[in-house]
Amino acid sequence: MQIHPHSEFNHSRDRREQGLQNLLDRLVKSIQRDELVRQTTNQLRESLQVDRVVLYYFYSQWQGQVTFESLSSKEFSILSSTGPDDCFNNEYAALYLAGRVRAIANIELEPIQPCHRDFLRNLQVRANLVVPIVIPRGLWGLLVAHHCQGPHDWSSSDIEMMQTGAQTLATDRNILES
């Protein structure tokens, strides 16, 4: 029996190269996805003229965190914020999964759960607009606009803009594959 060290070496090199190519492909998809989210949140914040637009990404069943934000000022940053565990439950998740859009012009006047109001106050939110990002396998995230400096009346065109942004994200192949 003859040993062919070159063929074994070539096979090992091919596996390494394939592994590196797979890694590079995943990195490129991740960068493209992140850039789309960044562009979407920036455009929405500027168009809506609000203090903050964030992507709240669900990394497991109804647990998530703010993974992207576009800010009018750094003082409004809530990056990595997780959310009120005791307030967001299956009932609310089902509503967003069904396409619920929630527009609150003034959190102090809106009939919401006390834990939800306290949570929003802690984030400096005075008004918010929440639109779901639904992909075929479920609720991927929430696109959220916050106005922190005062109440904000949300127009139907504001809501449509947010829904268009969410739909853009929900149909992107890099998000569908993530």
| CATH fold-level label | Beta-Lactamase
- Kindly report the oligomeric state of this protein: single chain
- What's the total count of β strands? 5
CATH C-level class is Alpha Beta
Number of helices: 5
User: What is the helix content?
Assistant: 40-55%
N to C succession of SSEs = HEEHEHEEHH
How many domains is the backbone divided into? 1
The assigned structural class equals: alpha+beta
- Rg computed from alpha carbons, rounded to a whole number of angstroms: 21 Å
Widest sheet: strand order?
2-1-5-4-3
What's the rounded overall pLDDT mean? 90
Low-confidence stretches: none
Q: How widely separated are the two ends?
A: 47 Å
Percentage of residues in strands: 15-25%
Indicate the overall shape.
elongated
Main pleated-sheet profile: 5 strands, antiparallel
The CATH architecture assignment turns out to be 2-Layer Sandwich
CATH homologous superfamily label: GAF domain
Write the SSE topology.
Layout: H1 5-48, E1 52-60, E2 63-71, H2 90-97, E3 102-104, H3 114-122, E4 127-135, E5 138-147, H4 156-170, H5 173-176
Helix pairs in contact: 1-4
Primary descriptors:
5 helices, Putative GAF sensor protein, alpha+beta, Phyto_chromo_attachment, 178 residues, 5-stranded antiparallel sheet, Beta-Lactamase, GAF, GAF-like_dom_sf
